[in-house]
Amino acid sequence: MLRWITSLILSLAVLVTASAADAQSTTEYYPLKKGNAWTYKAGKVVELQVKVSEVAEDGTATLDTVHNGMTVATEKVIVKEDGIYRSELAGMEISPPVKILSLKDKQPSADGTTWEIMADIGTSKLKGTSKKGSEKVKVPAGEFDAVVVDFDGEDVTLGLKTTARTWYVPKVGVVKISIKVLGNETVLELEKFTPGE
């Protein structure tokens, strides 16, 4: 059970980030301004808030995930010329950083664009393929035209297959995440996005 939970957390982190020369400050598909906050619902009772707590000079944003007033996860994300990358999770470096959304000229790449993922996260090795698409999505925060990233891969160390979908919306960011590990699905849906001041 602990392995499944660890794999789920690592997989979500790779899906829900780097040199200063390549860094852009942000993209409208994942606005990383200090103070920006996303409130998500998982199931009927679990509520999580993801908040940009810091943005470094090179553009790397630190995002804290808070549940019941306690920080339960921290990650680092950076926007580069060719995509949005996750570079750290829970104090563990992701090597190389994982591309979570492919970009071209600050906009998502064309539908059908694919990219390979192979990274070390702590003692785990993640391997898989991501593919970009587009579709409408409805969540508690509203109905949107979204960019969708489908991930199909596995935690090679633990031998756990993982599939995931992440929906990105301009000027809002991630509005929905669906992840399946060992046949168990977890879905996070956006309730509200609060811009930083």
Automatic annotation (TrEMBL):
Position of the signal peptide: 1-23
Keyword Signal set for record: yes
Keyword Signal included in the entry's annotation: yes
Superkingdom to which the source organism belongs: Bacteria
Keywords annotated in UniProt: Signal
Protein name per its UniProtKB record: Lipid/polyisoprenoid-binding YceI-like domain-containing protein
